[in-house]
Write a structure and sequence with these properties.
53% of the residues lie in helices and 19% in strands. With 415 residues, the chain is α+β, with helices and mostly antiparallel strands. It has two domains: 193 residues, no CATH class; 150 residues, no CATH class. The strands form two sheets. Strands 2-3-8-5-7-6 form a six-stranded mixed β-barrel. Helix 2 packs across helix 13 and helix 11 runs parallel beside helix 15. It is elongated, with a radius of gyration of 32 Å. The two termini are 31 Å apart.
Length: 415
């Protein structure tokens, strides 16, 4: 303990050099915390945006539809839809932690104004009331959202993506004719009034996407089936738990069912996550190398300036091992104090950036800017301090090796 305390006291002997080293460690720590905060906020934001943008936490679908699904495909045979979906829906909503189970029906076809050119569309029939219970968001640009109640025949409404509305020349109040093939391959038409124009946040999808009430979609496709049931939970952390519960509840169902999670459906999330983790590892390795080199140089210089002092200590009986412990203690104190200072600096910088309410340009393919927000990651604050202590311990290896090779006679004669 005496050598550890002596190592701390030695840091105060050359305050300028120690301050520079502490600043290097603190800035390196803060850089890691900012990167971790940005990545954590981005992961959480993207995850919740995907879930509340329409994916939900779980999807219940027929096993046949899942087996024939292509990655990223939106169209699915109507003959593979859920048959007794109302009973399935009631069972799902009786489970604990389930906010709602919304039925959806996927539609593809052509849309046109009375005197306009037809434009292809990809549509989704939804239950607005259940979507709102699950916290699903609709970014309206014009008009109003779909009404919760099922529309009567002749009162069907639709929400058009911004690009699709522009291609059709439609706006709220316009009447659009939708054409689609039903399960028997027969063409059917439905006149719908444009309730509003919205954006999905993805420019390419906006050029083809529309939403209408589930009752309207079933009327257009002349079917009693639905494509799937989207399940929303009270907490995302319960996804795995509820998936197992749903699988148990429908293990012996007459129509084989499959349950998928939001993460299995959102391959984009996994790709972004892997990219960000790679960036974090790359930046972390750069910080690691810079801190090791800078602090190792500082510690070596400290040894070179104290050669005669170290030689005197050896001459009066201090062993090389004791000197090594003292130098290691200096390095570890430097890492600990610098890491703690970096935590304070990182926390202050995160608070400042969040208060500035900065915006980043839209990512490729998106239409809206994203907030520059950083999350506080408690594990990162503790881990960064531990990492810096380890890094400084490694940086001390070179000066310790030099001290262990020090000869007393040469050290006492060093100028």
């Amino acid at each position: 303990m005496r050598l550890v305390a002596l190592g701390l006291r030695n840091l105060a002997r050359n305050r300028r050099r120690s301050a520079i080293s502490l600043a290097i460690v603190a800035v390196g720590t803060a850089a890691l915390l900012l990167t971790a905060g940005f990545i954590s906020f981005s992961f959480d934001g993207l995850k919740e945006a995907l879930i509340h943008g329409g994916l939900g936490h779980l999807e219940v679908v027929s096993a046949g539809a899942l087996a024939g699904r292509e990655p990223g495909a939106l169209d699915r045979s109507l003959r593979q839809g859920l048959v007794d979906w109302r009973a399935i829906q009631a069972t799902l909503e009786a489970l604990p932690h389930v906010e709602a189970a919304a039925a959806t029906l996927q539609v593809m076809g052509m849309a046109s104004l009375p005197d306009g050119d037809p434009v292809s569309f990809v549509g989704l029939g939804v239950e607005p009331e259940r979507e709102r219970r699950m916290g699903f968001s609709v970014r309206l640009l014009e008009g109003i959202d779909l009404r919760p109640a099922a529309p009567a025949e002749g009162e069907d409404a639709v929400l058009l993506g911004r690009g699709l509305a522009s291609a059709l020349g439609a706006r709220p109040g316009s009447v659009v004719t939708l054409l689609a093939l039903n399960a028997d391959g027969m063409l059917n038409a439905l006149d719908v009034q444009v309730a509003g124009v919205f954006t999905t946040g993805v420019a390419d999808l906006d050029t083809r996407f529309l939403k209408l009430h589930l009752a309207s979609a079933r009327r257009l496709l002349q079917t009693e089936l639905v494509s799937d049931l989207i399940v929303g939970l009270d907490r995302t952390e319960r996804t795995a738990e509820l998936r197992a519960a749903v699988e148990r509840a429908f293990a012996d169902h007459a129509q084989p069912l499959a349950v998928t999670t939001w993460e299995e459906r959102a391959s984009f999330y996994g790709q972004v996550r892997n990219l960000y983790l790679g960036v974090f590892a790359f930046l972390g390795s750069i910080v690691f190398v810079l801190v090791v080199l800078a602090c190792s140089n500082t510690l070596v210089m400290a040894v070179m300036e104290r050669v005669r002092e170290l030689g005197t200590l050896r001459a009066i009986g201090t062993s090389g091992g004791q000197l090594a412990v003292m130098l290691l203690a200096e390095a570890l104190w430097l890492g600990l104090l610098g890491g703690l200072a970096g935590d304070v600096l990182g926390a202050g910088t995160i608070a400042l950036l969040n208060a500035l309410d900065l915006k980043l340009p839209p990512p490729p393919g998106a239409v809206s800017p994203i907030d520059l927000q950083l999350a506080y990651v408690p594990e990162a604050f503790a881990g960064a301090v531990v990492l810096m202590v380890v890094v400084l311990g490694l940086a001390a290896l070179a000066p310790i090796a030099k001290v262990m090779r020090l000869k007393i006679v040469e050290a006492l004669g060093h100028v």
